[in-house]
Amino acid sequence: MDADVDASSELDEILQQIAELDKWREIFNSRGLELQQGYVKRPSEKIKADEDSDDSRPTTSAHHVSASNNQFTVPYSIPQTLAVSSSLGGQPVSPELAVSLRKILFGNTFHIFNYEWKKSFFKFREPFSDLAYALETERGGASAIQMVVQAHIIKYLLFNRPVNSTCTMQSMVEVGEKEQRRALVAALADILWTAGEEQTATISLVTSERCFTPHLDYKLDSFTERLQLFTFKKKDDVRSFICEHIQCFKEEGSHGIILFLYSLIFSRTIDRIRADFDCTTTHLLHLSLGNFVCRQALLNLLLTGRATPHVFNGTSFNDEKDKPLAHLLHGVLTRSHVGYLLWNREQVKHAQLPLVGSMLKTPKLPIWMCNINGTYSVLFSPNRLLLSDWKMEHLFQLYFYNGQPTQLITTVLTIDTHSHHWEAENNDIQGDLEKKFPSVEMTIRTKWEGAVIDWNGTVPFF
Question: At 433, is the pLDDT very low, low, confident or very high (cuts 50, 70, 90)?
C-alpha cells in the first residue's frame, strides 16, 4: 500500500515537472528565447537588463542558466509597480514563518506554486454586461479560491443593502469598474476577517527586496521571501488597506490568488489551522495530475473561517459502524453566509461521496459554492427568504455561473420541489443517473431531493 502511494506521489511529481517544462517552453518561445538541454540561451544584454529589473534575483551567474534549479524569475516576477515599499510599516516575513507557511500548504519545504497558480489573479468580466458581477476563472487549483470569492462578491452585490429592500439580478449587471472593485474589496475583507475570528486580519503583500536568505532545505520562489505582513484589529481598517492596494490582487502578474491565500493563512494563523486539522489532514494543498488542488480543509477555511477537514456537522466520535474512533474527526461547526454543495460521479459510483451536512447545505444566504466533478461553480438566488420560509422552496429560480470564458450569460434554472416527474422517470433508469440527468441537476438534488429542474431553453451542460 505504501509503495503504491509513493509511486502515485512520484508520478504526480513527474507530471508536474513536465507541465512546468511545457509552460517554460511556451513562455521562452513567445519571448524569442530558446530552452534547450537544461539551459537557456539569451543575449548577454538581455540577462543584464533582467538583473537590473529584479532585485530579488541571486547574483551568481549559475542561477541564470541552470534550468534544473528552477530559479528563473523573469516570467514569474511580480512587476515593480505591484511591489510595496518596505517602509510602509509591515512586518517582514521571517525564515521560520516562511518554512511554516510552506509546510502548512504543501507538507514540505521543497514544493512551490507552479505556473498555473502564479499567473492567477482576480479578473472581472466586462463591466455593465450580463456578467458584470462575475470573475473569470481558469481550470486548475486556484479556481476554487476564485469561486469562493465570487460567491462573496455576489453576496455583496445582492445583499449588502437594507433587509427589507428587494434584491434583483438587475443590480448584478449594472456594475461598473468602481463597483467591481468595491465588491472585490468587500469579499476579500469578509473572508479574511472571518478567518481571524472577527478579531483580526493579516494581509500579505510583496516588497521589492528579499526579507531573508533562504536555507539550503528551502526552495526559493522569488516572492514568498519578499512578503511584508500587515495586521489590523478593525474590519474597516482591513477594507481600507485592501482598497488602497487592490491592484496587488487584481492585476496581471500580481500573483493575486497566492497573496490572498497567504493572507488567509496568516489571518487564521498557522497554529489555529493545525488545531483545526485532525489525523486525516496535515496540509492544505494536494498534488494531483501535476497541479496543486485545494483540500476540503482549505475550502472549509474559505467558507467558514475554520480549516476543518470534513463536510459533516460538528465533531465525529464514532465511525460508520458506530464504533468509537481512536481520533476525533473535525467537521463544520457553524452556518456560514455562503454554503457548499458536492457531487462527484466517480465517488458516487464507488459509494464514496461524502454527505454534506446541513451547516453547509443551508447557509445564512442562498448562495452556494459547488464542487461538481472536481470543478467549481456558484449557484445563487436573489430571494433572501428562500432558506428561511419553506413556502418559497416549492417553486423558485436559481442562477448558475461556472466561471469559464465560454459562459456568456448567467444560466437560469427553475426548481420545482413539488412535482414528482423526476422520481417517476428515475424508476425506469438503471445504473448511472447521469445518463439522463446532468451533474448540475444531481448537485441541486443533494439539497432538494427529487426536485425537477427546468433549464429554461438553455442546453444542459456540466
Answer: low
CA–CA separation, 235 vs 203, rounded Å? Answer: 12
Helices 142-159, 177-195: inter-axial angle, 10-degree rounding: 110
CA 450 – CA 384 distance, rounded (Å): 23
Amino acid at 444: I
CB 404 within 8 A of CB 398: no
What are the tens digits of pLDDT across the range 312-325? 999 887 777 677 77
DSSP codes, 43-96: -HHHHHHHHHH-TTS-SSTHHHH-GGGT---TTTPPPGGGPBPGGGS-EEPPHH
DSSP 269-311: -HHHHHHH--TT-S-SEEEETTEEEE-HHHHHHHHHSS--S--
What count of Cα atoms within 13 Å lies in the side-chain half-sphere of residue 277?
Answer: 16
If one counts every other C-beta atom within 10 angstroms of the C-beta of residue 52, the result is: 9
Instruction: Round to whole Å and give the CA distance between 11 and 113.
Output: 17
What confidence category does residue 52 fall into, taking pLDDT thresholds of 50, 70 and 90? very low
- Rg of the chain (C-alpha set): 23
DSSP state of 389: -
DSSP letter string, 166-179: PP-THHHHS--HHH
Distance CA 293, CA 75 (A): 22
In this prediction the pTM is 0.82
| Inter-residue contact 187 to 64 (CB < 8 Å) | no
Distance CA 71, CA 163 (A): 52
List Cα–Cα distances, 283 to 61, 71, 290, 295, 356, in angstroms.
Answer: 35, 24, 17, 8, 21
Residues 156-199 pLDDT 10s:
999 986 555 567 888 888 899 999 999 999 999 999 999 999 99
pLDDT-derived band at 15 (thresholds 50, 70, 90) equals low
323-348: average pLDDT: 92
pLDDT of residue 289: 82
